[in-house]
């Protein structure tokens, strides 16, 4: 699933849409629309100008002139593409006054919705990882008895952080994924806070991680996958100490870690 760096990269690559107008909208899949009527959805946005595009957690918000938002979640395999031909997995086509925006999704786990107000499901998400002050982060950790990896995946704790970057941040901070959040000493909490910001910033600069079929709206792959230190490296030597990377399930998700560098 695209995580914060990938979604941020897609949102930035959609910047050319700002100022363009939606001439025609075609929706081909009710599942992606979460049951909304395709024709009614199209009628609500046709003729509207695009005022802005931004990321909020793992969501992309396309704000429209006159009010309202297109709320897009890419799910596992969703892709927003500027231009190109529609294919068998294209479920939405927005024809603009200049160009076209396609939504492709082979597994149909993503969604596109329209909201007149700032979407409630988005507003309920936790703070932005790149902006949360350390004191707020440390205080929130002390209130949680859960495993630290599970907590980092909880979107009400931090929005946008996912499996890849939680693993990478925990490795950089030297913290075991099964560690209990409230037991982290202040210095270790500081290292984790700094590691989250560092790994997300580096990943955004690299265009995200193209592990499966992720590309940005221009069709470009990311290359941060070449900088992964633990994620999906089970059995390979740790790049710091040489100990084989191990894998454990936390909150039903695979977690990759170095048993020597990351202490519980």
Describe the protein.
With 264 residues, the protein is an alpha+beta fold. The protein has helices spanning 4-13, 38-45, 120-123, 134-142, 148-153, 163-173, 186-205; strands spanning 22-27, 50-56, 59-64, 69-73, 78-82, 90-96, 100-105, 111-115, 246-250, 253-257. The chain has two domains: 4-123, MutM-like, N-terminal (N-terminal domain of MutM-like DNA repair proteins); 134-257, Helicase, Ruva Protein, domain 3, CATH 1.10.8.50. The strands form three sheets. A four-stranded antiparallel sheet has the order 1-6-7-5. Helix 1 (4-13) packs parallel to helix 7, helix 4 crosses helix 7 and helix 6 packs across helix 7. The longest helix has 20 residues, at 186-205. The mean pLDDT is 96.
What topology emerges from the helices and strands here?
Elements: H1 4-13, E1 22-27, H2 38-45, E2 50-56, E3 59-64, E4 69-73, E5 78-82, E6 90-96, E7 100-105, E8 111-115, H3 120-123, H4 134-142, H5 148-153, H6 163-173, H7 186-205, E9 246-250, E10 253-257
Antiparallel strand pairs: 1-6, 2-3, 3-4, 4-8, 5-7, 6-7, 9-10
């Amino acid at each position: 699933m695209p995580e914060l760096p990938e979604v941020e990269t897609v949102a930035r690559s959609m910047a050319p849409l700002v100022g363009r107008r939606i001439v025609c909208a075609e929706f081909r899949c009710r599942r992606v629309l979460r049951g909304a009527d395709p024709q009614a959805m199209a009628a609500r946005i046709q003729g509207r100008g695009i005022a802005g595009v931004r990321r909020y957690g793992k969501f992309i918000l396309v704000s429209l002139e006159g009010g309202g938002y297109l709320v897009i979640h890419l799910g596992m395999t969703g892709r927003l593409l500027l231009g190109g031909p529609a294919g068998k997995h294209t479920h939405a086509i927005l024809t603009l006054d200049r160009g076209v925006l396609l939504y492709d999704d082979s597994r149909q786990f993503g969604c596109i919705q329209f909201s007149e107000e700032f979407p409630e499901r988005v507003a309920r998400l936790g703070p932005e990882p790149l902006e949360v002050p350390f004191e707020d982060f440390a205080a929130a950790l002390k209130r949680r008895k859960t495993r630290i990896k599970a907590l980092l995946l909880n979107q009400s704790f931090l929005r946008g952080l996912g499996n890849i970057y939680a693993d990478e941040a925990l490795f950089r901070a030297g913290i075991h994924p099964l560690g209990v959040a409230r037991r982290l000493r202040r210095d270790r909490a500081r290292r984790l806070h700094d590691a989250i910001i560092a790994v997300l910033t580096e990943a955004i600069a690299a265009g995200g991680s193209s592990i499966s079929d992720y590309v940005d709206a221009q069709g470009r792959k990311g290359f941060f996958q070449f900088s992964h230190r633990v994620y999906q490296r089970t059995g390979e030597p740790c790049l710091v100490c040489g100990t084989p990377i191990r894998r454990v399930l936390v909150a039903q998700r695979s977690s990759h870690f170095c048993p020597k560098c990351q202490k519980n």
